[in-house]
Structures are given as C-alpha cells and as structure tokens.
Amino acid sequence: xxxxxxxxxxxxxxxxxxxxxxxxxxxxxxxxxxxxxxxxxxxxxxxxxxxxxxxxxxxxxxxxxxxxxxxxxxxxxxxxxxxxxxxxxxxxxxxxxxxxxxxxxxxxxxxxxxxxxxxxxxxxxxxxxxxxxxxxxxxxxxxxxxxxxxxxxxxxxxxxxxxxxxxxxxxxxxxxxxxxxxxxxxxxxxxxxxxxxxxxxxxxxxxxxxxxxxxxxxxxxxxxxxxxxxxxxxxxxxxxxxxxxxxxxxxxxxxxxxxxxxxxxxxxxxxxxxxxxxxxxxxxxxxxxxxxxxxxxxxxxxxxxxxxxxxxxxxxxxxxxxxxxxxxxxxxxxxxxxxxxxxxxxxxxxxxxxxxxxxxxxxxxxxxxxxxxxxxxxxxxxxxxxxxxxxxxxxxxxxxxxxxxxxxxxxxxxxxxxxxxxxxxxxxxxxxxxxxxxxxxxxxxxxxxxxxxxxxxxxxxxxxxxxxxxxxxxxxxxxxxxxxxxxxxxxxxxxxxxxxxxxxxxxxxxxxxxxxxxxxxxxxxxxxxxxxxxxxxxxxxxxxxx
Length: 546
Known about the structure:
Pfam families: DUF2510, RNase_T. It contains 19 helices and 20 strands. It is α/β, with parallel strands linked by helices. The strands form seven sheets. It has a five-stranded mixed sheet, with helices on both faces. β1 (7-10) and β2 form a beta hairpin.
C-alpha cells in the first residue's frame, strides 16, 4: 500500500469485501458485503443521480464520516458523554459504525436532553482512551453532521486534550440545508428516528438525511486530517445497549421549541440559543458564548436581533397551535423575551386575542370612566368629546377622567383590539375595556355593558447577577433574584468589613522656590509654614556657621 492514506480498501486476503488500512498497516477491521435490498432504494427516487451529486461535492474523498455527540453542555469547558461515527461511501452504503459512551469525569449535564445518567458512565472509557482510534476513522473522510460547527468543536477540544491536532477540512452540515432540528427534518423526509438524542441513532439519521437533501450542497468538500495517526484499538467501549431508558423531565420551553425553524445563516446560532434559554436563565458565560458564535458566523447586531425575533415567533407559533394560550405559556414566553432584550408587545400583540374574556358591567352612578381614541356616531361622523361625550356621561351619573389610573372602572375605546397606550395600560391595571358603540347603546337602553378583560401577566425581570428570570408586579431598575439578593451584605457595616481595604492615596506634591539660589524643589504637601530656602542652601549655611 505504500503511503496510501488510512481508509477502507479491498481486502488483499479476500476474507471480506473491505479491510481498514491505517496508513502503515492492515488491521483486523473488516466489512462484509451487504446484500442489496429494496430498502436501499428508499433513499430517493433516483439514487444514481443523488450519488453523482454527492460524488461531485466529495471531490477526491471516497469516504463520509457522519458524526454525532452528546455533551455535558454547549460551551468550551464542556465534555463529550457519547460519540458515534458512521462511515459511508459516496453511494450511501454504510461501511462501519462506532459508538460508545464516554466518561467525562464530571456530572453528565442535561440528562433531559441526552438521557445519559451518571450511573451509565461508571464503566465507560475516558475520551483519551478512544481518541487515537477516533482520529484514524476521521482522517481522510469528509465529515458530516447536523450542526457541524458544534460537533466538530466539541470533538476537536477532546482530541486536543489527547494531544491530537485535527483539521476538519470542509464538511457538510445538514442543519444548514434544512434550518430545523434533526427530528423535524427527518419527519419531513420520512426518515425514521426512534430514540433521538442517542448518538448512533442521530448519526444514522443524519447520514440518511444527507442523501435526501443532497441537492442543497454545491460547494466542493475536503476531507479531515489528524496528526499524529496511531492505530490503537480501544481497550474498551460501552454502548447504551442493556441500559434502560432514563426518566426525562423535559423543560416545557424545550418542548415548545422542538419545531422552531431558522434561516440557514443563523441556524447554528438559534440551535445554541434554544439550549441556552431552555432553563429560562441566561448567564454571563452563556451570553459570551452566544456572542462568540455570532462573531464566528459573521452575524452583526441587527442579524442577531432578527434571529431572536424569529426564535420567539417560532415559540409563539408553537404555543398557539391549539388556539389556547395558558398562563404557563405566557409566563415563559415573556421571560424569554426579557432574556433576549425583546419587547413584550411582540407576545401580547399575538396572544391577547386568545386571552380575552368577556363579561358585563352596569353603568351605575359614580363609575369612573376614561375615553381614548376617536368617537364616531352610527354614520361614521366624529363626535366632540368635550361638547357631547363627557356631558352625556355625567348626565348618567358617570365620572369622566382624562387620564387612566387604577381607580378607573372602565375604559371606552373606538376598538377594544386597539394597541393604544391607554388600552395597554388598562390591560395591565385590570381595567375592563368596552367599545364606544357598545357603550352608547348601553347608555340608551340601560342594559349592562359588554366589556373585555385580560389578566395582567406581570413584567418579566432578568437578574443582573446570575441571569435568571421571573415575573414581577412592577419593573425594577436594578433587578436581583431572591437568591442573589440574599447573598448581598446585610448592611453597610458588613459591607465595609467584607470589602477589601483601599490602598492609601499617594501624598500630594508641591513645588517651592528658594529665595537664596532662586532654584525650585519638590516636597510632599504638609501643613504648616512653607520653607523659603531649599534643603541644599539650608545645609550650606549650616556648614559655613560650623
């Protein structure tokens, strides 16, 4: 084989169809020929055309390595807890599969996402035990993943810790091609994906999805390369086979975000955003990671805000699928908006029609009424508020008000769906709102007035210390959550005790002029009478007298 690159080649001994060459020696890894079945034709109506399309972008590479990882988190300090590599040829035939749990030496992180528990990892290998074996599998293959940036970043950090440098080349990202989560994309292309967020299952599904969306790729790829390469069969691996499924308590917001889509240019950013806000908290570290990824993707502030808006609108779409908006949904949507520095009106504008309740009130004497918007009669002609509307109300015993306060019992608007400042304030104060037409009809007939009301959800606040969020009755200029507030010094005296002492200020310097030599000198500023002679002249005169 000479200097042939590591990869699958025809078995020189004829014991199998393929045998793995490490670059320096043949291994015991073989791959038997797989009989052609009808299922092979389910990947597309014109398989040969798809093969040509993938071959075109693969350039000189003859292997595809589909990777997937489950991790303790999303950031540079996080670790891999499970990894899978599915090796395929340009036709989509699976040549080999490798997967194992990995002991990260720390808590496995969000079990509700990946289903990996600490007890499952006790006998799993550390990453450095599989690192060289993994590097050989990746070397010379075009790397494919659903969110390629994330998977290559996490694996790259792990390989670097094991002393292996990897150049990922130019791979293929099915997230960029579809703009949605793997499960959603697979459902659209009728690709089965049971037990999602298991590395091997996701890698297999990503491989099938790659060929389903092959026409989305037109940029030539290049294979990954890793150094040093050393054949090292893992002493042990541990798959999930034999482990029962973990009980997953998935956060409601994560469930809501399952079907959220994003444009290809911001899809990796939205994926990270989804994970970051799923606990309704956005720490300083998370904000830093999001900013770093945005910079890496070339997103400016306007594009980031657009991504935030699209993500929030996707959550609202999901919440409104059943035409019902619950208090829990509204609470979480408002908190997400606050975490992303978005106006809560983006939520209330779309959800208020689903939250309005109707009731009736009597226009009794003493009721305080405020008016907003234009007043029109049945023919659409304007009615003067001061000359007609207010006197008419007072004639029925009502008290008119120019400004809306909590003491008002009713707001009359041209349209109850108005988004005017007064209507918005009435909704927050819990003041019922009625249309002008219904109001005048009730005055004429004496019947109860039909009004609309919406419960006040409160105001979302974000802790300035830890980034947690909650709903409050009023806005605070310096919001702090209860735990962070309890960690503050109890009083000024305690604050003075715990605060590091300030270093003494350097003494002020003054410049003086000598009356004898007419020179000048500097000295620390002190109280008392200033000397008229410099130190040299004082010493000179003292010596002369001696």
